[in-house]
Amino acid sequence: MSPAERIDVLRREIRSHDHRYFVLADPVISDPEYDMLVKELQDLESTHPDLITPDSPTQRVGGSPSSSFPVVRHPVPMLSIGNTYNDEEIRDFDRRIRDLLGPEREYAYAVELKIDGVAVSLRYENGALALGATRGDGEQGDDITANLRTIRSIPLRIAEEEPLLNNIEVRGEVYLPHEGFEALNASRAEREEPLFANPRNATAGSLKLRDPRGVAERPLQVFLYTLRFEDEAGALAARSDLDSHFQRLHWLAGKGFPTNREARRFAAIDEVIGFCHDWEERRSTLSYDIDGMVIKVDSIGLHGELGATMKSPRWAIASKFAAQRARTRLTDIRLQVGRTGVVTPVAELEPVFLAGSTISRATLHNEEEIQRKDLRVGDTVWIEKGGDVIPKVVSADLDEREEGSTPFEMPTACPVCETKLVRVGEEVAWRCGNAACPAQTQARVTHFTGRNAMDIEGFGPAVTEQILGNGLIGDVGDIYSLTREQLWTLERMGERSADNLLGGIEASKERPLDRLLFSLGIPHVGERAARQIAAHFHSIDTIGAATEGELVAVPEIGPKIAESIVSFFQNERNLKIIEKLKDAGLRMELEAPADGADSGTEYGAESGGETRALTDKIVVITGTLPNYSREEMAGRIEAAGGRVTSSVSKKTDYLVAGENAGSKLKKAQSLGVEILNEEETEALISGERSP
Ligand code: IVH
Predict the structure, then answer these.
(1) Which atom of ligand 1 is nearest to the CA of 318?
(2) Which of 207, 294, 315 to mutate to test the pocket of ligand 1 (most atoms within 8 A of CB)?
(3) Gap between the Cα atoms of 260 and 511, Å rounded
(4) What does the pLDDT read at residue 609?
């Protein structure tokens, strides 16, 4: 037998033992025997490195740590599903299906456990695992192939079939069983690392580790439940032999994929509901968390007919379980200061185990909420974990109330900087109005440097506290002027970690505009809103100049976000921060600045080869122009890259004024905005006159 042939035999054998061990939990050889097979394969591969393939069982933990994950677009979006919370809503779902299909059609449901983990997609090309990705926002996720390869139950290669299988995509849920979760937290506690709140968070955290070797140490598991076939051109292929979801689950299991064995098929909705109730009762017997059941129309053909809304398919629904409750003691109510100064009361609880995790804290939202529920320090309280991860305090058990307990009173000063707390307008929240409050600054820096924001490696909570405590930075704008010498003065900060941190800071300068926008921590501006706004306005200056009206014209942006953005860019403090970030060379535009532009403050006049003399200039038009209507002139200005807005402000670059110009002209004059007539405007657009 040639080395190549022996390698092939060994790989097949090891794969089959892996499947028996990790998927079926039914090994047929002893561990030492298995190790010998692996050892032989490793030896052969090291003498014949040209024969190593990525799907070899030796390659599960290959590769080196990656600094960030490449983004991949899902060929078919990973939708989420609608939720139901009671039987009536499940019946409504069934009625909708019947109405859509017509009374004559027959259909059945496949009902599965809703695994409380992290959704992933696996792509197999020519039978080999080629790509593993997170769901991300549903449209695009992170390429975490190297991390997913470490999950031993995921086949790196699937058995070929005749006729040859084209590419397939398999989706499912990665999760951490209770036992693995407890062990992971125990070892983190030993090393004084922060604990994970629940198995789902631990799973998400593990999948995002930069070093696959770390992931390999976490006992992650997976259940696969969705299968999509492609034709040769990569388009969705129908498989008439596998038109049932239930059959597909069996097909997956037959190919060696871990599938959940509790799925059942029912024709009647009453049976579906009964099955859901059964599992709600029995959920605690499982060795992993579920947060409900998923009800799917079984026929794949009908999926196509029923279609999907923007967010979720019409053929599936989740039946969510009621929240799980526990009783414990409220030991204290502490105030936490957020990055915008909002002060949130937090319940400190005697640690209690609830639905897969130990809880020692819960949010109390605001003063009103505490008073409405009359929660008092020392009370025995009911806590609940609802659909979301964050537990809440539901009520106090008045029978257990201690004598002499006193109602909660909201402190009048910030617990950190002692500034008097204020209430803004109609808001229920109290705020610390001191923008320089250390707690706020810390929260802003933590947000700015966080993984979903500028993602600065090494800027953890301890380092942030040290840097702020030593006055090395005053706001996030100062992060980019930190020096090695400054960092060296910090306790426990060696040369190497200082350089790593500076490397992380430097690398973060490349983050795209939408990330930067999100990182600024503008109230109400989440990642999605930031993406929409960046895509629409293309540069930080145009965003800063946008009016509320212009902002609400952007898809998904409502008045609350618009108002928040406008007021953010009116604040001098914020503008100073943005100036510092510009000076540091961060990306202030959607795309990389044209070659040769060495800082983000210079705007290239070139775009797509044509001259766009007014790129990013904010222009207002007023009065009657001699040759053009205002609409026509606006069109010409926009074609030259400018933005036409309706009111004059400090940010306006030019006022194009015709006859009978009124208040706008006066305002422009008083603000020192440059005023142009039609002819001068034309000269600017054609490039005869420079801006
Ligand atoms: S089917 C388009 N089946 O729940 C339908 N999802 O809220 C795709 N999940 O993103 C989902 N167990 O992360 C499906 N048996 C199961 C599931 C399941 C858990 C998760 C999944 C999905 C989310 C939907």
Answers:
(1) 7
(2) 294
(3) 40
(4) 34
